[in-house]
Amino acid sequence: MNLFPGRRICLSLFILTLAVASTSCCSVADLHKNQDFVGLERKVDRLDSRLTEEAAALRGEVRQINEQVAALKAPAPPEDRAPSAPEPAPPLPPAEVTGLYTLAREKYVRGQYKEAAELFDRLAAGAPQHKLAPNARYWLAECHYSQRRFQEAVTQFEKVIQDYPASDKAPDAMLKLAYSFHMLQDGHAAMTHLRNLLQRYPKSRAAEMVRKGQTVFQYP
Fold first, then answer.
1. How far does CA 46 lie from the centroid of its chain?
2. Is the pLDDT of residue 81 over 50?
């Protein structure tokens, strides 16, 4: 694209006027034989070429400036953020807790461990202060254990002991915690939890089972 429309025509006409004024030639054909005119015409060609190159360079600079302006206006990429913590479960109305717990236990007895686990998890998260909450957490762990998901079972049994240490399910959870580590082939952790069971809950049914050899463990 020519940035100066008619530029060469104007220059040529100007040169032609000078040549006519300075020579006695009468025709354009004779002008092209005139050395002064030919020299001036060549200068016009060189000037036109240089102006074309300068115009191209200017267009390139304008294009770079436009790209820089567009980059400045572009929205910044979102910053990397740590994943947000999951929202707490909505509280479960107390009137629904007993019925939901009964339904979950029925599914567990029928071997529907996945469905039972979902219900027990909802109970444990939605009614953590309810009297059935320790049981719900314990049976959630048992659902994982029955599906041979022993690491998940460990996590839930530990929560029973940590969150409800005075509940009747705490010693049972400690015994099954030992079972879970046994299934994970971690004998040292299994025996550690057996000793903790006997020390913390010596009068519990679970501790009595250990002392009488009614478990998979042989404890002196």
1. 61
2. yes
Which pLDDT tens digit goes with each residue over 185-200? 999 999 999 999 999 9
Percent of the chain whose pLDDT exceeds 90: 52
Output b/e per residue, 164-177; b: 16+ Cβ within 10 A.
beebebbbbbbbbb
pLDDT of residue 112 exceeding 70, the answer is yes
Task: Give residue for tokens 């039972």.
Answer: 116
Beta strands in 113-157 (DSSP E): none
Q: Could you give the CA distance from residue 97 to residue 127 in angstroms, rounded to a whole number?
A: 8
- Decide: 104 and 139 in contact? Cβ < 8 Å: yes
Beta-carbon contacts of 131 under 8 Å, excluding residues fewer than 6 positions away, are none
H helix runs in the chain, sequence order? 7-22, 28-31, 35-73, 94-109, 113-126, 133-146, 150-163, 169-183, 187-200, 205-211
